[in-house]
Amino acid sequence: MTSPATPGRADSIIDADVADLGVIFRYLISTGYRLALVAAHHDLADDEHAAASIRVVYVMVAGPPDTRVEIHLRLPIAHPVLPSVSDVSFTAGRFEREMQDLFGLQLSGHHQPSRLVLHQHWPEGWHPMRHDAGPPPPFDNETESYPFLTVEGPGVYEIPVGPVHAGIIEPGQSRFSGVGETILNMKARLWFVHKGIERLFEGRHPDGGVELAERVSGDSAVGHNLTYCLAVEDAAACAPPPEAQVLRAILLELERIYNHVTDLGAMGNDVGFGIAHAHTGRIREQVLRLNARITGHRFLRGGVFPGGSRVDWLPDPTTLHQIRDDVHQIVDIMMVNTTVVDRFTGTAVLAHDDAAQIGTLGYVARLRARYRRPSRPPLRRCPRAPDSPRPARWRRDEPVQGPRCRDRLLRRSHRCAAGTGAAG
Amino acid sequence: MSPTGIAVAVLQVILTIAVAPLLVGMMRVIRARLEGRVGAPIRQPWRDLRKLLRKQRMVSQNTGVVFSIAPLVLLASAALVAGIVPFLSTTSALDQVGDLFAIVYLLLLGTVFLSLAGLDAGTAFGGMGSSREMTIAAIAEPTLLVAIFALSVSTGSSNLGAIVADTLANPSKAASPASMLAFSALAVVTIAETGRIPVDNPSTHLELTMIHEAMILEYSGPDLALVELAAHLRLVVFLGLLANLFFPWGIATTAQPLHLLAAAGAVTVKLIVLAAVIAAAEVFIAKVRLFRVPELLAASFVLAFLAVTVSFFLV
């Protein structure tokens, strides 16, 4: 079983054969495991392993209780053919295509084996994650076009949105096919900014990886960095002291709160309810200023490092209570407004099966799990179709649960700080 | 057409053009303050127009003549309506030729040209915006026509100056059921035609939810300045119609400079009050779904139709 000292360790590792992979994978899926990650690595030839190979690792998780199983697979570098499991798992299909682009795996039995991460203008046969890849070659001018599904018929038109957007979001192109106001199909093309971060990590000192991990995505500096630090600690078989784990939980909470507050306002702004946006902007700024005092950076950079975590200062719980009350008030203003509720109700309903298929994570996954529970009474204010105002309400509830949990953590950490000094 | 009448019409156009961007700026400030923001100063729309006018004119190669003349037609029609509508005096020079039908279809002319311009560039967003604008215009224009027609029934004339003068002479007319129903209908049309919340969101960056903004996405520089100014003008024209058709007090019945000055003050106050009410209301409502907009407009058409019916039975 997993010991608390090494939270990342797998419970069991299966060394699979190419022929067995499908059977093992299907068995695990059928017993309630879900795919968390498929990662590949180019192993060079050494004395123990006869030849160079591409190692593919499938991480499968289930719970509660949390269990983690890894399937390890070695493919010969000369002829790396990976049997696809995309018919069982949509998410696996995406990972497989990524590995196809980056490692040069050949997929067998994939229903849609087109390129994913490296767009069509990258020349064929250059796989950047291989050790012998070399510098990026010049782009191809003769490019195949992206295989958008074309919808044909009288009155059908296509609207390309993006890849450069009016808001500050990452690039991505959505192609809508519609007749009048009815959308028949939407295809999103992403991965415009593949930054090659994995290769940038190579050869860095473990501490030097922190600055990179914190910059993978601006608004989840703690999340990405914590994942990186856990991986380093897992590899080094060492665990941070409990005080550091408490501080990490606090930092994660703070990061979650400013993101939820921002998104709440964005939801209001998107339906033309600007007052919600204006006030969540104000609250977000308050939280960011708290963050700046806590770790010295508005996005909480520098709080977590391999082996520990540090803060300069911790806020008073009453400050956080005020923020919670503020958020509450804004959500209440939104959710008693019939025009806002009307826009949220029935918009972007995510069916439970789809959520499981896509492999949603985080609050979306938890929202679906919660939705399934029959014991929870339906919301009073939207009796018609309770699906859709939920995300807004859930986002309200999230920061609410956050401070409560954080209060406990803060009390604990103040006790810890009394013993060990504030910098965890 | 007397020289003083022409002077009044010209004065109206100049005054409207000067006031329109300021009124829009004021609406933005009111909204910002109510939302807890500072907001841009009131003269910001004028600054934006000046900035746009200084820029180079850029036109897509795929556009035709409609795209080029649409801003001019839009602005000219709006300016002409601003000259006809009795803002300052019931004895406007153009009033003899411009009755309610002329006004409604001059406004529609601008709408149609802008929609054609949206199609002309051949972009998906422009076509989508034009399609939506036409859906709205198809219900909004008859509502506008019928609502003003309800007022003209009791006057016995479709001349706007005559309608206003009649209301001035018989103040009880302003509180008649027909007048109130027509006012409600016209208020909804004003919001729909000027692209305000809840029908359209003028400050959105989401291309897929746009109506007016989607049509003008291809415009830039001086062309965009003309389109924006015309949009501001149309807002003032609609608000001015609402103000003077239903609350005509303060308007001059002669063309004497002193009376005109007082009338200018009166109409400005009325415009400010109406604009402030709309801006404040926008804070508390979200944009409705596009599919709900025809329902809203159909309801306003029913109100306008009732106004006409009532005006025949209850004089």
Q: If you had to describe this structure to a student in words, what would you say it looks like?
A:
The complex is a heterodimer of chains A (424) and B (315). Chain A is α+β, with helices and mostly antiparallel strands and 424 residues long. Chain A folds into 3 domains: 1-130, NADH:ubiquinone oxidoreductase Nqo5 subunit (Beta Polymerase, domain 2); 153-194, no CATH class; 205-420, Cytochrome-c3 Hydrogenase, chain B (Orthogonal Bundle). Chain A is built from 12 helices and 11 strands. Chain A has helices at residues 21-30, 90-103, 197-201, 208-213, 221-236, 242-270, 274-295, 317-335, 338-344, 352-358, 362-372, 389-420; strands at residues 12-16, 34-43, 53-62, 67-76, 81-83, 106-108, 156-161, 173-179, 182-189, 304-305, 308-309. Chain A is globular, with a radius of gyration of 24 Å. The two termini of chain A are 29 Å apart. Chain B has one domain (3-313). Helix content of chain B is 70%, strand content 0%. Chain B has helices spanning 3-34, 44-54, 65-84, 100-120, 124-155, 160-169, 177-193, 212-215, 221-246, 257-283, 293-313. Chains A and B meet through strand 7, helix 7 and helix 9 of A and helix 5 of B.
